[in-house]
Amino acid sequence: MISLMTLWTQWTSRRLTSDGLVPIMPSMQQPLLTSDEVAKILKVSRSYAYLMLKRGDIPAVHVGSSVRVRPEDLELYINSNAARGDPATPSLFDED
Q1: SS3 assignment, position 13
Q2: Which of 16, 50, 58, 59 has a CA 20 to 30 Å removed from the CA of 27?
Q3: Class of 34-90 in CATH
Q4: What ranges do the domains of the chain cover?
Q5: What is the C-alpha separation between 25 and 96, in angstroms, rounded?
Q6: Contact 67, 60 (CB under 8 A)
Q7: What would the pLDDT profile of 15-51 be if each residue is shown by its tens digit?
Q8: Model confidence pTM above 0.85
């Protein structure tokens, strides 16, 4: 039986660009973030991070029973809330 990794390698090896990168799915260059990592980055509780993901505030990818976030989606969320001046969004520069 052939493994999924072998199939992926065979498939992508025929689609490499001259610099050796696969042009398909460029966003997959960075690993997905866990909800715990999202909570730490935003400096909120884990349960609040889950709530934000459940409400759709931050787009999430569901992998089985796990929830993951693309780094660019989290960055977009942070930038869009910073632009609005949303007081509910934690600031990296706020003093405790």
Answers
A1: helix
A2: 50
A3: mainly alpha
A4: 34-90
A5: 40
A6: yes
A7: 555 555 555 555 456 789 999 999 999 999 999 999 9
A8: no
Token pair, residue 53, equals: 């993901």
Give the pLDDT score at 96: 46
Task: Give the C-alpha separation, 38 to 48, whole Å.
Answer: 10
CB 69 within 8 A of CB 58: yes
Q: Which two tokens stand for residue 36?
A: 């715990």
Residue range 47-86, pLDDT digits in tens:
999 999 999 999 999 888 899 999 999 999 998 887 665 5
